[in-house]
Amino acid sequence: MLAIKHLTLSHFRSHRVTRLDVDARPLAFFGPNGAGKTNVLEAVSLLSPGRGLRRATVDEFARQPEGLGWKVKAEVDAGGAHEVETWADPGSARAVRVDGKAASQVDLGRMIRVLWLIPAMDRLWIEGAEGRRRFLDRMTLSFDPGHAEQALTYEKAMRDRNRLLKDQVGDPSWYRALEAQMARAGMAMTRARAATVVALAEAQAGAETAFPTADLSITHPDVELPGSEEDLLRAWEDTRRRDIAAGRTLIGPHRVDMEAVYAAKGVPARAASTGEQKALLVSLILANGRALAARVGAPPLLLLDEVAAHLDAGRQAALYDEICALGAQAWMTGTGPELFAALGDRAQRFEVTEDGGTSIVTAAG
Q: What is the predicted pLDDT for the residue at 79?
């Protein structure tokens, strides 16, 4: 089972020093808005690759006004006990250490799988494609930690191609090597995304749940999705003149979108009610967790910020039942303890308060 046993936050956001000793049960953090609950979840999210659940810069994690740098340290049960540390000194990049040895963020992704749902995602189905693409890539990363490397390779080559486009370079030879890199990485991304959609569909179909099933599809706003590297290369060659006029790459894996349909009603997610949209998101997170548990032998860590919002009491209770049935260590926040009453003694509870700009976390049973 994947679970955090000890967590220490040092000069992280509103937490000067916070130490938590916990067990594998779900955790409920409650307290007023602004007390520092989400900051705990954000710290846990940095035990996985990327910029965390709020996509912050490294400097934004540092407690102010001190600006001394920050550190998150955890003892994690991940097929054995491991000590994981991630930190940044002022003006430095984020560093990672596992069991006292330097490690990469990809190493974190292979050892610790983390999924999250935050209030900013509540508008996922009605806002732009970028957020949905990021949501899809986060799920894909949970299955395939190498997806991050492919995305970085693709984005670097595309930035170089875009510079050529902005400079109005017309010679095809300048583009071919970059486009070959983009095609290799782009098709790896495309295959990984498609495999993720299949895995989620299977996990949803094989479960009895109080949450609605979402039929997912991956689309491109301009062209039919390519089936091979050759298709991508041909598409970029055919659209190069248009790209030069625009000064950027207009088609490719960086432009895909993820669409969802509320299966039982045949209604696009964007047309569903606010509560239904939230329920579809919860359904996907749970399906992702079930699929990961089947694939790697342990459910991921779940970070569920203000998870009770837009869920009625029945669905709140159903969510907690499903988390416990999955066996996941879920880190959840809410404004009051009553939001977690249906968990009973299946959860650990912590009250988060604020005193002079410093968060204080107290065990509450």
A: 86
Write the DSSP assignment of 271-324 as a string of letters. Answer: GS-HHHHHHHHHHHHHHHHHHHHHHHSSPPEEEETTTTTT--HHHHHHHHHHHH
CA distance 350 to 337: 9
Pair 329, 250 in one domain: no
In angstroms, how far is the first alpha carbon of the chain from the final one? 23
Task: Specify the amino acid at residue 345.
Answer: D
Point out the domain boundary residue: 295, 315, 348.
295
| Cβ–Cβ < 8 Å for 58, 73 | no
* Domain termination site, one of 295, 321, 350: 295
Please give the structure tokens belonging to residue 230.
Answer: 């050759």
Q: Average of pLDDT values for 336-348?
A: 94
- Angle among Cα 198, 201, 203 to the nearest 5 degrees reads 110
Mean pLDDT lowest among 104-113, 241-250, 286-295: 104-113
DSSP output for 12-63:
ETTEEEEEEE--SS-EEEE--TTSSHHHHHHHHHTTSSSSTTTT--GGGGB-
Q: Is the peptide bond before 226 cis (omega within 30 degrees of 0)?
A: no
Is 119 inside any structural domain? Answer: no
The residue written with tokens 């050892």 in the block is 111
Q: Residue 310 above 90 pLDDT?
A: no
Residue 227 confidence (pLDDT) above 90: no
- Are β-strands 15-21 and 3-12 bridged in parallel, bridged antiparallel, or unpaired? antiparallel
339 and 218 in a common domain: no
**For residues 97 and 67, which has the higher predicted lDDT (pLDDT)?**
97
Q: What is the CATH number of the domain that holds 193?
A: 1.20.1050.90
Residue type at position 146: G
How far, in Å, CA of 139 to CA of 338, rounded? 31
Give pLDDT tens digits for 149-200.
999 999 999 999 999 999 999 999 999 999 999 999 999 999 999 999 999 9
Expressed as residue numbers, the domain containing 86 is 1-113+300-365
CATH number of the domain within which 55 lies:
3.40.50.300
| Structural domains of the chain, count | 2
